[in-house]
Design a protein that fits this description.
This protein has about 190 residues and is of the alpha+beta class. The chain is about 30% helix and about 30% strand. The protein has a single domain, classed as Gcn5-related N-acetyltransferase (GNAT) (Aminopeptidase, 3-Layer(aba) Sandwich). Strands 1-2-3-4-5-6-8-7 form an eight-stranded mixed beta sheet, sandwiched between helices. The protein is globular and about 45 Å long.
Length: about 190
Amino acid sequence: MNFPQLQTNRLILRAFLPDDYQRLRYLFSDFDVARMTSSFPHPLTNDSAQKLMSRFMSNDPKTNVVWAIDNGTGFIGSIGAHEIGESSSLGYALGKYYWGRGYMSEAVQAVVNYLKFERCVENVNACVFLENPASFRVLLKNGFTPTSLCKHTCVSRGEDEIDTQNFTLALTEASLQSQKLAAGIN
């Protein structure tokens, strides 16, 4: 299976390139970015940035796709669809300089459309730290529904357990009806 490049009005979601390393290292070294992800270390050393790049570049498009988000100036963030099957989980991060411009909402919509129309995924799940209202807005804007609360560890915060909101998005009528029944909605 080839790597699925996606395009929106302003973005190209593409495979990571070795040239992305410097911008990734710079943008993801910001503690404000790392603290909103469960797996980004802080500080981001050369070694940990290389490991992150290797992880992002070791895609298996059958089950795991991580895209570099490019706005025409180069790498600005990442978005991944993980454990692709009947359902998939979504994770993303954006350089702080690019926050508040609608880029992540656009990227999430592109990935959701890919999962729905190209991969026939029925549900997409995501989890967000409660202290990240911008990410809540991204998911709600794209039709995700909050489900349950839980805790996730955060590498950049010394493995602290952070309160987290789970979200889900039904992509088929059958999964939407199943969600409504589970929530007690007719």
